[in-house]
Amino acid sequence: MAKHRITLIPGDGIGPEISEAMRIAVEATGVDIEWVEVNAGQTVMDKYGTPLPDEVLDAIKDTKVAIKGPITTPVGTGFRSVNVTLRKELDLYACVRPAFSIEGAKSKFENVDLIVFRENTEDLYAGIERMVDEDTAESIKRITRRGTERISRFAFEYAKKHGRKKVTVVHKANIMKFSDGLFLKVSSEVAKEYEEIEFEDRIVDNMCMQLVMHPENYDCLLCPNLYGDIISDLAAGLVGGLGIAPGANIGDEYAVFEPVHGSAPKYAGMNKANPTALILSAWMMLDYLGEKDAAQKLLLAVKKTIKEAKKVTYDLGGTASTFEMAEEIARNITG
Ligand code: NAD
After folding, report:
1. From the CA of 185, how far away is ligand 1's center (Å)?
2. Fold adopted by 1-95+245-335
3. How far apart are CA 15 and CA 187, in angstroms?
4. Of 155, 186, 202, 321, which residue is most buried, by most CB within 10 angstroms?
5. For residue range 198-257, what is the model confidence (pLDDT) as tens digits?
């Protein structure tokens, strides 16, 4: 039996191509993985009548760890987003999105090294919405002590394990005194348990300005769901865009690794999309699995490939295809 069994969800749009590219790169590290392939999203709708068949959840519950390509969320069908449902069903409460400068990836900054921790289950994404009347809508912003405590502890533990120095909590407690006030209060309490890590807070609007002016001053950002969603895209923009932005959704029992970007339907099937964001998501997965050497090899190979710029995709200024870039990363691991 393989050392690790991983559920692979290729997704749709550019998902299948970048998933195959990710496998090429990960297999070059030599880590012994059995991939359990299942799919979700529009491509399985006809067969199962649902975008999230039971076999997908069953597979993740069995292997505990999954990596997925992006899935298109159709607007206006009766189904909830597969991505949101997965996070809820598996209680993947911590969304972790690193954004760091890679030499060769064009961006306005050279020394960014951020990790955004986004609470994944509460806030305005809890789905508590209603039409009060035809012309009035309400969405409830729900923040709980339990939800805040566990994402805060997750962020501090992750910071400690990865040698990070500072956590900044992002909020708007000056206006939303109860909901964001609770997030700030509880995260500040948890921070006291981690004296070796510096702790500070920023109001979200100021945070955005600080990040686009002095991103080098920040390290780990701890955010409620909505601010985390926005700030992680902003962070990806600081280091060269969505093509290189990885992510993970982690709970106490299960973890699903996936890029920040979506299914980019206009590039589907063109062998053109950048596989880096998914390959770096696999780097996070190898780290999570305790495969530190393989993770490091993969990260160094990605950095070398982008720095040399011989075989990189269009968004990094090159002409290589998805697979050519993945094969170059694999060569840089084994060569
Ligand atoms: P998107 O991230 O798919 O694409 C936006 C643009 O970013 C693309 O047109 C392309 O120019 C660029 N881009 C994205 N990924 C790239 C890559 N790997 N290489 C090179 N360029 C890349 O965002 P969108 O167009 O807003 O969303 C498309 C669909 O994806 C929607 O249905 C959305 O709901 C879904 N989505 C899914 C996920 C997920 O599965 N986790 C996340 C975000 C969006």
Report:
1. 35
2. Isopropylmalate Dehydrogenase (3.40.718)
3. 36
4. 155
5. 999 999 999 999 999 999 999 999 999 999 999 999 999 999 889 999 999 999 999 999
What is the rounded distance in angstroms from the CA atom of residue 271 to the CA atom of residue 269? 6
Is the CATH number of domain 107-239 3.40.120.10?
no
Instruction: Note the pLDDT tens digit of each residue in 1-23.
Output: 779 999 999 999 999 999 999 99
Taking residues 142-153, what's their average pLDDT? 98
Report the alpha-carbon distance of residue 322 to residue 335 in Å, rounded.
20
Residue type, 13: G
User: Percentage of the chain with pLDDT > 90?
Assistant: 88
311 is catalytic: no
Is 205 labeled as catalytic in the residue annotation?
A: yes
Any catalytic annotation for residue 229? yes
Residue among 12, 68, 93, 125 flagged as catalytic: 125
The 8-class DSSP code of residue 172 comes to -
Calpha distance 74→82 (Å, rounded) = 10
Indicate where the chain has its CATH 3.40.718.10 domain(s).
1-95+245-335, 107-239
Which ligand 1 atom is at minimum distance from the Cα of 18? Answer: 18
Rounded to an integer, the average pLDDT of 303-318 is: 96
Tell me how far apart the alpha carbons of residues 274 and 29 are, in angstroms, rounded to a whole number.
20
Tell me the pLDDT band of 46, cut-offs 50, 70 and 90.
confident
CA 41 – ligand 1 centroid, Å? 14
Q: What average pLDDT does the structure give for the chain?
A: 95
The rounded Å distance from CA 268 to ligand 1 centre is 11
Query: What is the whole-number distance in angstroms between the Cα of residue 270 and the centre of ligand 1?
Result: 15
Report d(CA 67, CA 9) in Å as an integer. Answer: 6
